């Protein structure tokens, strides 16, 4: 369900989404890193920021989806299919990774002063516009661009769980509109965030998901048919209905004694199309694209927009490693 790797000065945690989400995984990784330095003999103060050093609470293992389930308060989960990015893919299941490093304070200052929005809203709209601008077959397409943005539900439901407790919100952009601007897409993004980041709406989504799990018909099915049912459910709610997934893990809040020892953090998701992750540590923010597609035009458009806005952008990628693999 999870693996821990190390290479030189890098520690990597790989985990299956069913056991936790990004927030829970980050707490676990911080505990691993803290324990590593303790075993090395460093005298550290965790400042109550490392859960592995604090007394265990039953609330950390609570299934908060179930505890917030209301059978009389459900929302339909049916989703229409979305536009999918076309293009030739790398061989052998290779994933291209492109990391963009940017100063956090400068980035936030630019976004707030220019567009009066959050970092996640800005990045969501910019990814959507980059897809629109670089996908020549999108205009007139029957399916919209849909970006799925996972939301940490803990603040909304006062939860301390380390189990998976996140849902997505979605931003949808009509393919029939031929004159999209970035500002248009940002306005839709802001409205979608405001409408969907509502506790009542989120609770209805929770109840619908748990209701599917509790369905007596599903529970009594033989395993082979149950797997088929869950596959159908995944097709309804999974990759067929989103163009790109964008996950913002937020700030990695470290104890003071670790800040000079942990110089960076990468957060990545796999994808069959295009995935994007965001995380901030120390004084910088990392934006990481992952994709099996060879075409870099969408990613290049995103990066060039940041550069034209005056942002100092540092790029790291495994492109040559992937490129060498296919020769």
Report on the structure:
The protein is an alpha+beta fold and 327 residues long. It has one domain (79-326): Nonribosomal peptide synthetase, condensation domain (Chloramphenicol Acetyltransferase). The protein is built from twelve helices and nine strands. It has helices spanning 22-39, 64-67, 104-115, 119-134, 154-157, 182-196, 199-214, 216-220, 223-237, 256-259, 297-308, 319-326; strands at residues 2-7, 10-15, 96-103, 145-152, 166-173, 244-251, 275-281, 284-291, 314-317. The strands form two sheets. Strands 5-4-6-7-8-3-9 form a seven-stranded mixed sheet, with helices on both faces. It has a two-stranded antiparallel ribbon with strand order 1-2. Helix 4 packs across helix 6 and helix 4 (119-134) crosses helix 11 (297-308). It is globular, with a radius of gyration of 21 Å.
The helix content, as a percent range, equals: 25-40%
Total helices: the number is 12
Rounded radius of gyration (Å): 21 Å
Encode the helix/strand succession as letters: EEHHEHHEHEHHHHEHEEHEH
Task: Tell me the β content.
Answer: 15-25%
Regions with little confidence, pLDDT below 50 for 5+ residues: none
Mean pLDDT: 89
- CATH level 1 class label: Alpha Beta
Number of DSSP E strands? 9
Largest sheet: 7 strands, mixed
Alpha-carbon distance between the two ends:
33 Å
Q: What is the count of distinct domains? A: 1
Strand order of the largest sheet: 5-4-6-7-8-3-9
What is the CATH topology assignment? Chloramphenicol Acetyltransferase
What is the CATH architecture assignment?
2-Layer Sandwich
The H-level CATH homologous superfamily, spelled out, is: Nonribosomal peptide synthetase, condensation domain
Shape: globular
Helix-strand makeup class:
alpha+beta
């Amino acid at each position: 369900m999870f693996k821990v790797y190390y290479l030189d000065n890098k520690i990597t945690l790989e985990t299956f989404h069913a056991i936790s989400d990004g927030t829970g995984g980050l707490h676990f990784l911080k505990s691993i890193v803290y324990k590593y330095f303790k075993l090395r003999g460093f005298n550290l103060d965790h400042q109550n920021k490392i859960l592995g050093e604090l007394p265990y609470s039953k609330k950390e293992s609570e299934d908060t989806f179930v505890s917030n389930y209301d059978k009389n308060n459900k929302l339909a989960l049916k989703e229409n299919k979305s536009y999918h990015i076309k293009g030739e893919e790398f061989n052998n299941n290779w994933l291209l990774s492109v990391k963009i490093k940017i100063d956090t304070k400068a980035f936030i200052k630019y976004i707030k002063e220019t567009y009066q929005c959050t970092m996640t809203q800005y990045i969501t709209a910019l990814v959507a516009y980059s897809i629109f601008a670089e996908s020549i077959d999108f205009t007139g397409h029957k399916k919209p661009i849909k970006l799925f943005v996972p939301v940490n539900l803990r603040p909304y439901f006062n939860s301390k769980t380390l189990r998976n407790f996140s849902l997505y919100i979605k931003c949808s952009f009509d393919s029939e509109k031929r004159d999209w601007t970035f500002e248009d897409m940002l306005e839709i993004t802001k409205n979608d965030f405001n409408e969907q980041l509502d506790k009542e709406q989120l609770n209805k989504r929770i109840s619908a998901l748990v209701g599917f799990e509790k369905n007596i018909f599903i529970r009594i099915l033989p395993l082979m048919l149950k797997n088929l049912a869950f596959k159908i459910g995944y097709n309804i709610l999974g990759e067929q209905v989103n163009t790109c997934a964008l996950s913002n893990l937020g700030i990695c809040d470290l104890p003071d004694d670790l800040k000079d020892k942990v110089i960076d953090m990468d957060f990545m998701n796999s994808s069959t199309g295009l995935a994007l992750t965001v995380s901030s540590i120390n004084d910088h923010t990392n934006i990481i694209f992952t994709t099996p597609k060879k075409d870099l035009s969408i990613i290049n458009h995103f990066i060039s927009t940041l550069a034209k806005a005056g942002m100092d952008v540092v790029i790291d990628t495994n492109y040559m490693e992937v490129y060498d693999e296919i020769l």
